[in-house]
């Protein structure tokens, strides 16, 4: 009853306050729903202390316990950081943080000799201040996540110096793109007349297409080192597989993901006839620098970029051998190429206009299809073992609450994927 009374009261407010109230109610509703789901999943981490019998073959109890503790820590972290950002957002709204920032940017413009007629300049200063604020309040959380949680569970490979340099670089690069793009957008809105929204929409569409096109070649290399995969058996086999399904592969890169963390991944990008594959060095058993220390026991060399120190080396040696064999890497790629062959990328772009929940459901379907595709390429057995290894390397937790998983997981639970692979392994 209290809720309806307050909704009634809201309806009698002026429009501006009504929107304000609606934003708050919506934001807290979403927040509480997500927190409820997270608590359900957290209960699973807490209560599932032994490897479920159906997983006995694929996960040892040590890895299971490691993964369980990692997920518990992550869930505690996201509870507190989520609570913080929800409260921060609410306080900003309640205490007029946005109008305050607008007046502040007006004052800065005034000092610089721009009068109130320069509202575009003022908007840009506003944007700069807002992004600066959000970057600085987000920084402690991100530091804690990297250097406490990821570090504790053996994933972090960054030094504090690398992290800070990276954060500053990210901020500068973002501003270099954001500021000119938004000033053009504001200009278009200003001169667009009655149909300004159509021009503005077209403009943002073009800008995002351009960004997607240049990202991999011009922006990503600012942050990470991409080297062509050396000639050899793995490269040959990748090329053969790409050719067999008419994938227009032009280059295979290895990205030095190990400089950030020991989480592993693989992806492809590029338009039309110019497709490239990127493999994380952490995915490749043969290339992973994280394995070097293990092979030579104590002969680990610090990285030659001046950022290595004693601490970092210790962290590396702790890691078990990680990554996949060549056949397994190929099986993972077979799955990725399945996404391409089945047109999932384009379908995702089209559907991303719709609700994100539908996208999650669809994405899970696509994962099964891509697995089935890799299976058709004769990779069922290798994909099976690759999925298990990747789950182990990334300390993925194999048990999940059904509601939480339905809402959040873009990939189906490991067990379901393995089951599906097994079912048709025979044929
Ligand atoms: Zn996939």
UniProtKB/TrEMBL annotation:
Keywords: Endoplasmic reticulum, Hydrolase, Membrane, Metal-binding, Metalloprotease, Protease, Transmembrane, Transmembrane helix, Zinc. It catalyses: Hydrolyzes the peptide bond -P2-(S-farnesyl or geranylgeranyl)C-P1'-P2'-P3'-COOH where P1' and P2' are amino acids with aliphatic side chains and P3' is any C-terminal residue. One of its GO terms (biological process) is proteolysis. Binds 1 zinc ion per subunit. It is an enzyme of class 3 (hydrolase). The keyword Transmembrane helix applies. Its main location: endoplasmic reticulum. Its EC number is 3.4.24.84. Pfam families: Peptidase_M48, Peptidase_M48_N. Belongs to the peptidase M48A family. Proteolytically removes the C-terminal three residues of farnesylated proteins. This is CAAX prenyl protease. It comes from Galeopterus variegatus. The gene is ZMPSTE24.
